[in-house]
Amino acid sequence: NAGVTQTPKFRILKIGQSMTLQCTQDMNHNYMYWYRQDPGMGLKLIYYSVGAGITDKGEVPNGYNVSRSTTEDFPLRLELAAPSQTSVYFCASRTLGAQTQYFGPGTRLLVL
Amino acid sequence: DQQVKQNSPSLSVQEGRISILNCDYTNSMFDYFLWYKKYPAEGPTFLISISSIKDKNEDGRFTVFLNKSAKHLSLHIVPSQPGDSAVYFCAAKSGLDFGNEKLTFGTGTRLTIIP
Q1: pLDDT cut 70: percent of chain A above it
Q2: N or C: which end of chain B has fewer CB within 10 A?
Q3: Contacting residues of B for A4, CB less than 8 Å apart
Q4: H/E/C letters for each residue in chain A?
């Protein structure tokens, strides 16, 4: 039972490069979320999705894009990496009617 | 504007004693609260939750208390064990977000259990 998986675990990007953070869940959850956590801070919501084909912005969406073509996958795209995007990124999912979100192990991103 | 606040960045407790982690919130529309536990290099894991219609919820060594009038909740761990050493996040859901429920997280409290 894999739950929520994220790849890569760690990545170094140069300013201006782009990358996609992958997130997959095998629990058939409708809702999926992307958060970032900066040192000493709580988790900030970047984007979320309530089902395949439906996404919406969270608290800090600038510089990111998402898509949700399947129930299982919710990739997060960084188009022009900036040092301010250095953070740890967590993907989460939950089922309809429940409030508990299940988190992946995170992707640590360093932009230099 | 920090709607969920954990004012103690860190807490150290002797093994076997009670750990009390606190959380304050400002949004009176929050109707559901959760505590998550996070170990280094791992994602947060759900610990315990409470609905605003209750004032206490218990699960084994973990109890969450909610004081709505004070907009305050606390997590009690008793007895504390070394494996409880982690960062604990308080999170809240607004009753206005029906159908698109999102969580607002606090900044976390690092709990260290001293053997």
Answers
A1: 99
A2: N
A3: 43
A4: CCCEEEECCEEEECCCCCEEEEEEECCCCCEEEEEEECCCCCEEEEEEEEECCEEEECCCCCCEEECCCCCCECCEEECCCCHHHCEEEEEEEECCCCCCCEECCCEEEEEC
